[in-house]
Amino acid sequence: LEIGVSGVERVANPEPRSFAIDAGGVGHAPHELLFIDDKDENVAAAQALGWQGHRFEGADRLSSELKRRGLID
């Protein structure tokens, strides 16, 4: 599990360059990546670039989603 934080790169979401930096840094194809954000427009921007997306609406829901995807136990 790898985590990218847009603020560290000094590029704001939903700029496509932000997603390109994150994707390039982990060495995975966009369809293999999951973008998590609390803003619909940022999730939609990631999905438009081929990423999987999840709108953050609380820790419990995110935990359930990550378990469903087999990313955590």
Record keyword descriptors for this entry.
73 residues; mainly alpha; 4 helices; 47% helix
Architecture overview:
- The protein has helices at 6-9, 16-26, 40-48, 59-68; strands spanning 34-37, 52-55.
- By secondary structure, the protein is mainly alpha-helical.
- The longest helix is centred in the first third of the chain and has 11 residues, at 16-26.
- The chain is globular.
In short:
The protein has 73 residues and is mostly helical. The chain has helices spanning 6-9, 16-26, 40-48, 59-68, and strands at residues 34-37, 52-55.
Our Rg estimate from Cα atoms comes to: 12 Å
The proportion of residues forming helix, as a percent range, comes to 40-55%
Query: How is the biggest beta sheet arranged?
Result: 2 strands, parallel
Shape descriptor:
globular
Task: Determine the strand fraction and express it as a percent band.
Answer: 5-15%
* Low-pLDDT segments, ≥5 res: none
Strand order of the largest sheet: 1-2
Distance between the termini: 12 Å
Query: Quick one: how many beta strands?
Result: 2
Order of helices and strands: HHEHEH
What's the average pLDDT?
Answer: 83
Number of helices: 4
**What structural class results from the helix and strand content?**
mainly alpha
